[in-house]
Amino acid sequence: MKSDCMQTTTCQERKKDPIEMLHSGQLVKVCAPMVRYSKWALAEGYGACLINNPELVRDMVKQVRNQVENPRFSVSIKIRIHDDLTRTVDLCRKAEATGVSWITVHGRTVEERHQPVHYEAIKIIKESMSIPVIANGDIRSLKEAENVWHITGTDGVMVARGLLANPAIFAGYEETPLKCIWDWVDIALELGTPYMCFHQHLMYMMEKITSRQEKRIFNALSSTSAVLDYLTDHYGIDWTS
Prior knowledge:
The protein has helices at residues 18-24, 39-43, 54-67, 85-98, 119-127, 142-152, 161-165, 178-191, 195-205, 212-219, 224-235; strands spanning 30-34, 76-79, 102-106, 133-136, 156-158.
């Protein structure tokens, strides 16, 4: 599986107006995330419902693209799919014609949550495009990543929750190795990562290696020192060395 690294910065602000996007253009390299299905996003016209307004998406991409002189500047979109896949293909073609660099497709509709991902739909979109297309959805192991890559014929895969649960997924590990946990603790302590983020990522990483009782105890911890004591007691890790 080929993988090329693109340096990107994601804008998480609530922007849907093309002019707002233009003013953010010097900071945004990944724009118009159209997969969010939270109630506030859908109610205010953000997130996943943007796929129903291809002209607006086209204008957003165009405004950002025109604002940036560097032709290597990466402008991408991440979308869900429509029930009528021809609408999704049309959206992607409009974005491509406007200058989007690559498109990530999460293979579910706006209404779908935990239903099976429509990988065949992603394949059809890929076959309709000239720019790179990335497949996304329910990839939790290296084997699944390879399978999705082969099924869809895309230029790569994007993993979200699978990487949160196991940052070593692409190294072939089925669960998070202790070395990965050690590395995260070292990085978080060195950079002063806020406790909520520090603890939350450990909760994700330890999901498969802890029992239900251990999860209850670990998830209830409320300080960095308590987490370090827990890891020392249960895994023999000496953070002071």
